[in-house]
Amino acid sequence: MAEALWNYKIKCPFCGTQFETTRMRNSAIRVKEQETDFSNIFEGECPYLYAVTVCPTCTFAAKNTDFEKIRVQAEAKIMAASKQLRASTRPKPDIFGLGPSTPEIAVKRYELVIAFYKMRYVVELGVLANMYLQLVWLYRLMKNKEKEQLALAQAAAAYENYLAKAYNLPESLGEPGIIYLIGDMYRRMEKYKEACRFFEQALASKEIKDYPKIADMIRDMMMMTKEKVQKTAEA
Ligand SMILES: [Zn+2]
Q: What is the pTM for the complete model shown?
Protein backbone atom coordinates (compact mmCIF):
# COMPACT_ATOMS: atom_id res chain seq x y z
CA MET A 1 0.00 0.00 0.00
CA ALA A 2 1.18 3.49 -0.79
CA GLU A 3 2.27 5.75 2.06
CA ALA A 4 -0.64 7.64 3.63
CA LEU A 5 1.22 10.96 3.49
CA TRP A 6 2.88 12.59 0.51
CA ASN A 7 4.37 15.97 -0.24
CA TYR A 8 2.68 18.14 -2.82
CA LYS A 9 4.47 20.98 -4.63
CA ILE A 10 2.34 24.08 -4.82
CA LYS A 11 2.59 27.81 -5.56
CA CYS A 12 1.11 30.51 -3.38
CA PRO A 13 -1.38 32.48 -5.53
CA PHE A 14 -0.66 35.68 -3.57
CA CYS A 15 3.13 35.86 -3.20
CA GLY A 16 4.23 33.34 -5.83
CA THR A 17 6.35 31.25 -3.44
CA GLN A 18 6.77 27.64 -4.47
CA PHE A 19 6.75 25.24 -1.56
CA GLU A 20 5.88 21.72 -0.50
CA THR A 21 3.01 20.77 1.77
CA THR A 22 2.12 17.39 3.25
CA ARG A 23 -1.19 15.87 2.23
CA MET A 24 -2.97 12.65 3.05
CA ARG A 25 -4.17 10.24 0.39
CA ASN A 26 -7.95 9.74 0.33
CA SER A 27 -7.36 6.04 -0.16
CA ALA A 28 -5.57 5.88 3.21
CA ILE A 29 -8.50 7.30 5.21
CA ARG A 30 -10.02 4.68 7.53
CA VAL A 31 -13.14 5.79 9.38
CA LYS A 32 -13.72 3.81 12.57
CA GLU A 33 -16.83 5.57 13.84
CA GLN A 34 -18.76 8.81 13.67
CA GLU A 35 -19.51 11.12 16.56
CA THR A 36 -22.87 12.85 17.13
CA ASP A 37 -21.51 16.07 15.58
CA PHE A 38 -20.36 14.22 12.42
CA SER A 39 -16.71 14.20 13.46
CA ASN A 40 -15.09 10.95 12.42
CA ILE A 41 -12.80 8.83 14.50
CA PHE A 42 -10.06 7.35 12.32
CA GLU A 43 -7.81 4.38 12.38
CA GLY A 44 -4.26 5.47 11.60
CA GLU A 45 -3.54 8.98 10.36
CA CYS A 46 -6.18 11.66 10.88
CA PRO A 47 -6.99 13.56 7.65
CA TYR A 48 -8.08 16.65 9.64
CA LEU A 49 -4.38 17.37 10.24
CA TYR A 50 -3.64 17.63 6.52
CA ALA A 51 -6.75 19.41 5.18
CA VAL A 52 -5.39 22.95 4.96
CA THR A 53 -2.41 24.54 3.20
CA VAL A 54 -0.35 27.47 4.53
CA CYS A 55 2.22 29.47 2.55
CA PRO A 56 5.50 29.64 4.49
CA THR A 57 6.34 33.08 3.08
CA CYS A 58 3.17 35.14 3.51
CA THR A 59 1.12 32.70 5.70
CA PHE A 60 -1.85 32.81 3.31
CA ALA A 61 -3.91 29.79 4.36
CA ALA A 62 -6.89 27.97 2.86
CA LYS A 63 -8.52 24.58 2.68
CA ASN A 64 -6.57 22.34 0.29
CA THR A 65 -9.49 22.40 -2.11
CA ASP A 66 -9.56 26.22 -2.15
CA PHE A 67 -5.86 27.12 -2.06
CA GLU A 68 -5.18 27.11 -5.80
CA LYS A 69 -8.72 27.98 -6.85
CA ILE A 70 -9.07 31.28 -5.04
CA ARG A 71 -9.51 34.23 -7.43
CA VAL A 72 -6.60 36.50 -6.56
CA GLN A 73 -7.98 39.48 -8.55
CA ALA A 74 -11.10 39.54 -6.33
CA GLU A 75 -9.25 39.35 -3.03
CA ALA A 76 -7.71 42.79 -2.45
CA LYS A 77 -7.71 42.51 1.34
CA ILE A 78 -5.86 39.20 1.27
CA MET A 79 -3.34 40.56 -1.22
CA ALA A 80 -2.65 43.52 1.08
CA ALA A 81 -2.25 41.18 4.07
CA SER A 82 0.03 38.87 2.06
CA LYS A 83 2.28 41.83 1.14
CA GLN A 84 2.39 43.07 4.70
CA LEU A 85 3.13 39.63 6.14
CA ARG A 86 5.85 38.97 3.57
CA ALA A 87 7.59 42.21 4.55
CA SER A 88 7.19 41.59 8.28
CA THR A 89 10.30 40.65 10.20
CA ARG A 90 8.29 39.05 12.98
CA PRO A 91 9.17 35.36 13.25
CA LYS A 92 6.62 33.07 11.57
CA PRO A 93 4.97 30.33 13.64
CA ASP A 94 6.64 26.93 13.44
CA ILE A 95 3.91 25.21 11.43
CA PHE A 96 5.51 24.49 8.07
CA GLY A 97 7.26 21.18 8.73
CA LEU A 98 6.64 18.31 6.33
CA GLY A 99 5.57 14.81 7.31
CA PRO A 100 3.41 13.71 10.25
CA SER A 101 1.65 16.59 11.97
CA THR A 102 -0.09 17.11 15.32
CA PRO A 103 -3.45 18.59 16.36
CA GLU A 104 -1.52 21.42 18.05
CA ILE A 105 0.03 22.48 14.74
CA ALA A 106 -3.25 21.93 12.89
CA VAL A 107 -5.04 24.33 15.28
CA LYS A 108 -2.58 27.10 14.38
CA ARG A 109 -3.04 26.41 10.68
CA TYR A 110 -6.85 26.43 10.94
CA GLU A 111 -6.73 29.70 12.87
CA LEU A 112 -4.87 31.25 9.94
CA VAL A 113 -7.46 29.87 7.51
CA ILE A 114 -10.24 31.45 9.58
CA ALA A 115 -8.42 34.81 9.66
CA PHE A 116 -7.96 34.80 5.85
CA TYR A 117 -11.49 33.57 5.11
CA LYS A 118 -12.86 36.49 7.12
CA MET A 119 -10.96 38.81 4.72
CA ARG A 120 -12.52 37.31 1.60
CA TYR A 121 -14.52 39.39 -0.84
CA VAL A 122 -17.48 37.11 -0.21
CA VAL A 123 -17.35 35.50 3.23
CA GLU A 124 -18.79 32.01 2.92
CA LEU A 125 -20.54 31.64 6.26
CA GLY A 126 -20.98 27.87 5.95
CA VAL A 127 -17.30 27.28 5.24
CA LEU A 128 -16.32 29.59 8.08
CA ALA A 129 -18.68 27.81 10.51
CA ASN A 130 -17.23 24.48 9.42
CA MET A 131 -13.70 25.75 10.14
CA TYR A 132 -14.77 26.62 13.71
CA LEU A 133 -16.24 23.13 14.04
CA GLN A 134 -12.92 21.66 12.87
CA LEU A 135 -11.24 23.51 15.74
CA VAL A 136 -13.67 21.80 18.13
CA TRP A 137 -12.66 18.43 16.71
CA LEU A 138 -8.94 19.22 16.96
CA TYR A 139 -9.21 20.28 20.61
CA ARG A 140 -11.12 17.05 21.25
CA LEU A 141 -8.22 15.12 19.70
CA MET A 142 -5.91 17.02 22.07
CA LYS A 143 -8.26 16.16 24.97
CA ASN A 144 -8.27 19.87 25.85
CA LYS A 145 -11.79 20.15 27.34
CA GLU A 146 -11.50 23.83 28.21
CA LYS A 147 -10.47 24.92 24.70
CA GLU A 148 -13.02 22.55 23.17
CA GLN A 149 -15.78 24.28 25.14
CA LEU A 150 -14.61 27.72 23.99
CA ALA A 151 -14.45 26.53 20.39
CA LEU A 152 -17.92 24.99 20.71
CA ALA A 153 -19.40 28.35 21.70
CA GLN A 154 -17.72 30.00 18.68
CA ALA A 155 -18.82 27.22 16.33
CA ALA A 156 -22.42 27.33 17.56
CA ALA A 157 -22.55 31.11 17.07
CA ALA A 158 -21.06 30.76 13.57
CA TYR A 159 -23.60 28.09 12.59
CA GLU A 160 -26.50 30.13 13.97
CA ASN A 161 -25.31 33.10 11.90
CA TYR A 162 -25.03 30.85 8.85
CA LEU A 163 -28.51 29.42 9.37
CA ALA A 164 -30.01 32.90 9.75
CA LYS A 165 -28.41 34.29 6.57
CA ALA A 166 -27.70 31.42 4.22
CA TYR A 167 -29.99 30.46 1.40
CA ASN A 168 -28.00 27.45 0.25
CA LEU A 169 -27.42 24.92 3.00
CA PRO A 170 -25.36 21.81 2.23
CA GLU A 171 -27.50 19.12 0.64
CA SER A 172 -26.04 16.35 2.75
CA LEU A 173 -27.44 17.86 5.96
CA GLY A 174 -30.16 20.23 4.78
CA GLU A 175 -31.90 22.58 7.19
CA PRO A 176 -32.73 19.82 9.72
CA GLY A 177 -29.11 18.63 9.82
CA ILE A 178 -27.69 22.10 10.43
CA ILE A 179 -30.26 22.87 13.15
CA TYR A 180 -29.56 19.48 14.75
CA LEU A 181 -25.82 20.17 14.66
CA ILE A 182 -26.31 23.44 16.54
CA GLY A 183 -28.45 21.57 19.08
CA ASP A 184 -25.74 18.96 19.53
CA MET A 185 -23.20 21.72 20.22
CA TYR A 186 -25.43 23.13 22.96
CA ARG A 187 -25.83 19.62 24.36
CA ARG A 188 -22.03 19.31 24.47
CA MET A 189 -21.92 22.65 26.31
CA GLU A 190 -24.40 21.10 28.80
CA LYS A 191 -27.05 23.65 27.82
CA TYR A 192 -29.70 20.95 27.58
CA LYS A 193 -32.80 23.13 27.35
CA GLU A 194 -31.38 25.07 24.40
CA ALA A 195 -30.31 21.78 22.82
CA CYS A 196 -33.86 20.41 23.06
CA ARG A 197 -35.24 23.59 21.53
CA PHE A 198 -33.00 23.14 18.48
CA PHE A 199 -33.84 19.44 18.19
CA GLU A 200 -37.55 20.29 18.21
CA GLN A 201 -36.98 23.01 15.63
CA ALA A 202 -35.08 20.53 13.44
CA LEU A 203 -37.91 17.99 13.62
CA ALA A 204 -40.41 20.72 12.71
CA SER A 205 -38.42 21.66 9.57
CA LYS A 206 -40.31 21.36 6.29
CA GLU A 207 -37.39 19.37 4.90
CA ILE A 208 -37.35 16.71 7.62
CA LYS A 209 -39.10 14.12 5.38
CA ASP A 210 -36.11 14.20 3.02
CA TYR A 211 -33.71 13.28 5.84
CA PRO A 212 -35.06 10.14 7.55
CA LYS A 213 -31.67 9.10 8.99
CA ILE A 214 -31.08 12.51 10.52
CA ALA A 215 -34.66 12.50 11.86
CA ASP A 216 -33.99 9.20 13.70
CA MET A 217 -30.77 10.58 15.10
CA ILE A 218 -32.51 13.72 16.34
CA ARG A 219 -35.28 11.72 18.06
CA ASP A 220 -32.69 9.62 19.92
CA MET A 221 -30.69 12.66 20.96
CA MET A 222 -33.82 14.49 22.05
CA MET A 223 -34.83 11.61 24.35
CA MET A 224 -31.35 11.48 25.88
CA THR A 225 -31.22 15.23 26.34
CA LYS A 226 -34.72 15.45 27.85
CA GLU A 227 -33.62 12.95 30.49
CA LYS A 228 -30.67 15.22 31.27
CA VAL A 229 -33.02 18.22 31.64
CA GLN A 230 -35.17 16.22 34.07
CA LYS A 231 -32.16 15.08 36.09
CA THR A 232 -30.86 18.64 36.33
CA ALA A 233 -34.31 19.79 37.49
CA GLU A 234 -34.45 17.08 40.17
CA ALA A 235 -30.95 17.72 41.48
ZN1 LIG B 1 2.37 33.32 -0.01
A: 0.94
